[in-house]
Write a sequence for this structure.
């Protein structure tokens, strides 16, 4: 009867997953269809019916947060012994255990970030790269390693795959080779090498493989559309010649192909396992029918033979998605902030609102707009919550209070009162400090811990301070931060796996989505799936917007994303009042870099509109023409060349490529006098 109770409340398709406890199983699960519920109930049902013991199950996913959620749900279902880990965590655990037996000696140190070693490798090759280029090089090395290409194979493989690194392909190969040499000399191991070495140990040492396969005989892999060739190789070594493998994924949410992930492992699962049971989850419990209809419309226009699932909405009707067009990005951000403020005033919690964009550099404009509107916000992908100094201090205080027995014996309110009392020693108060800044951010962190204690007391009135501290420690290990009270700002990639009541999808212009670098049909289709992921994050409210120009007064040459063709219905065009724009400019603070979003402090950086080490879109032919023209003018007027325009101003003009006097006037260093004197000549050069 206990096993049957696990099946209660599942829909027919979820129940089919839960009851398919033997043999290969492939679950095609659309967004919001309850895939985590289905697979955790499957594992629990299998353990309760004696098919497998919990200790023999290995559930694999891609993030520590997702693994922590799997473990939490399985405990609640009565299967606490199941191992739920990421690929890397599982591999590290096995490699560390078997290292003394099969290798011996000092084990290598795991590299958390490749940047430092890549920089050393570049210097050894007598090459110099900016920080952003080093990150790009690290990404190329990761791609090469997960797709099993050695340094000597990389150039041909990169060309065939259409890779577009910021450095020359031959230079990437040189740095890659030197990176591997330095890594071996320093006894270091990166994450890709850890997976590869684990697979090699299992392949070359039969007794090790037998022990691992004896330990784990029942496998579940979540987000299988994101598996790369290296992870697939490790999974195959774990499974061996057995078939107790359940994979779960959604081909419509394949958005990591650039890292080497391939949906072919999911889509071709039945070719590898002809007797596999296939179950499709299409009942969407997350989003309203209006949001689901738009999501189906976005993905329904996908090109290619293998389209994904079509969702079927299960919720009641909600508002229609709205489509907004703006003159410029500043107006777009201002209106998103106003709409977010309105939703909060109407009762939608700030933590249930998200603004999602294609690239992180778009964040700065929205940070300024939200700050000007007095709306709190949280940057997803910024500093990890449990690594914040105030959070570390609070956890230490709570742990000390738990050891000292500082817990109240009451009906749940005792836990809340105790936690708030301990947090008050770290600076927490019932009311937040005025304004924004570091004090407000510190208060928000402590308030999130206080709110978590209220949630725990509501779930379990008997919970005490030791239980709360244990929950915090488990969340810290899984990087499962409590929700902060603020509008979430995140890239579309970072938003995958999350959901909110209200979502603003911003910057939906061709060249941004799809990104200008998406050239091949496959790359463009991945950009379409990225929009689909964004749409399916919304439960009720959804707004989609684009701007016709980047800056106020700029040439309005942009067009809405091609992915919205035929889907926008009625589009509202917004032109905010001048007073609002003036207020916005006064409140926005330091000028952000248009590439990475960092505040610009140096004069030359403000003139260029970007950090000096950030990549530029420089028109070198235009810059040469501008310098030749300047030399001619300075000779005719008998003045130094910098009096006409400085080198930085000319470079800024060559990067921006202004198409009108208004756009030219927006470039620092081009005042009214110079605009009147040289504007027409400069625009003639810019127009070719």
């Amino acid at each position: 009867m206990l096993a049957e109770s696990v099946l209660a409340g599942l829909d027919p398709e979820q129940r089919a997953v839960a009851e398919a406890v033997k043999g290969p199983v492939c679950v095609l699960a659309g967004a919001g269809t309850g895939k985590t519920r289905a697979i955790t109930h499957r594992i629990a049902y299998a353990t309760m019916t004696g098919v497998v013991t919990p200790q023999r199950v290995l559930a694999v996913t891609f993030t520590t947060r997702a693994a922590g959620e799997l473990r939490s749900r399985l405990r609640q279902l009565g299967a606490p012994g199941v191992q739920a880990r990421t690929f890397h965590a599982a591999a590290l655990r096995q490699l560390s255990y078997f290292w003394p037996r099969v290798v011996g000696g000092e084990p290598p140190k795991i590299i958390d970030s490749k940047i430092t070693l890549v920089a050393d490798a570049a210097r050894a090759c007598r090459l110099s790269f900016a920080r952003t280029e080093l990150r790009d090089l690290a990404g190329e090395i990761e791609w090469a390693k997960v797709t099993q290409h050695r340094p000597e194979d990389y150039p041909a493989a990169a060309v065939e795959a259409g890779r577009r690194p910021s450095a020359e392909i031959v230079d990437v190969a040189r740095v890659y080779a030197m990176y591997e040499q330095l890594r071996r000399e320093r006894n270091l191991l990166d994450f890709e090498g850890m997976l590869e070495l684990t697979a090699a140990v299992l392949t070359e040492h039969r007794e090790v493989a037998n022990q691992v396969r004896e330990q784990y005989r029942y496998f579940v892999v979540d987000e299988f559309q994101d598996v790369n060739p290296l992870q697939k190789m490790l999974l195959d070594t774990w499974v061996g010649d057995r078939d107790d493998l359940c994979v779960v994924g959604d081909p419509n949410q394949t958005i990591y192909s650039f890292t080497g992930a391939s949906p072919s492992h999911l889509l071709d699962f039945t070719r590898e396992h002809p007797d596999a049971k296939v179950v499709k989850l299409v009942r969407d419990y997350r989003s309203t029918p209006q949001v689901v209809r738009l999501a189906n419309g976005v993905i329904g226009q996908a090109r290619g033979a293998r389209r994904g699932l079509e969702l079927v909405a299960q919720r009641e009707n909600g508002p229609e998605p709205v489509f907004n067009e703006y003159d410029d990005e500043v107006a777009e951000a201002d209106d998103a902030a106003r709409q977010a403020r309105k939703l909060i005033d109407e009762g939608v919690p700030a933590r249930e609102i998200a603004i999602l964009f294609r690239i992180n550099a778009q964040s700065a404009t929205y940070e300024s707009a939200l700050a000007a509107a007095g709306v709190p916000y949280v940057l997803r992908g910024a500093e990890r919550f449990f690594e914040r100094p105030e959070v570390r201090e609070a956890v230490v205080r709570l742990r000390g209070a738990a050891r000292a027995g500082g817990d109240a014996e009451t009906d749940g309110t005792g836990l809340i009162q105790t936690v708030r009392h301990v947090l008050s020693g770290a600076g927490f108060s019932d009311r937040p400090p005025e304004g924004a800044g570091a004090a407000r951010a510190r208060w928000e962190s402590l308030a999130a811990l206080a709110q978590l204690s209220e949630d725990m007391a509501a779930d379990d009135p008997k919970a005490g301070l030791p239980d709360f501290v244990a929950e915090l420690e488990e969340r810290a290990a899984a990087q499962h931060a409590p929700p902060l009270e603020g509008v979430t700002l995140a890239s579309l990639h970072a938003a995958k796996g999350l959901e909110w009541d209200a979502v603003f999808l911003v910057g939906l212009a061709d060249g941004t989505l799809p990104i200008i670098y998406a050239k091949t049909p496959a790359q463009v289709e991945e950009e379409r799936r990225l929009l689909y992921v964004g749409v399916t994050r919304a439960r009720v409210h959804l707004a989609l917007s684009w701007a016709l120009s980047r800056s106020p007064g700029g040439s309005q040459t942009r067009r809405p994303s091609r992915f919205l063709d035929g889907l926008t219905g009625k589009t509202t065009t917004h032109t905010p009042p001048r007073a609002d724009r003036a207020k916005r400019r006064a409140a926005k603070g330091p000028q952000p870099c248009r590439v990475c979003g960092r505040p610009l402090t140096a004069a030359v950086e403000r003139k260029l509109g970007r950090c000096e080490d950030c990549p530029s879109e420089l028109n070198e032919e235009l810059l040469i023409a501008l310098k030749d023209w300047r030399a001619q003018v300075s000779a005719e007027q008998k003045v130094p060349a910098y009096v006409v325009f400085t080198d930085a101003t000319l470079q800024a003009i060559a990067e921006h490529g202004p198409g009108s006097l208004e756009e030219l006037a927006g470039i620092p260093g081009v005042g009214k006098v110079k605009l009147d004197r040289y504007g027409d000549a400069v625009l003639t050069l810019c127009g070719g």
Observations:
- The longest strand covers residues 538-549.
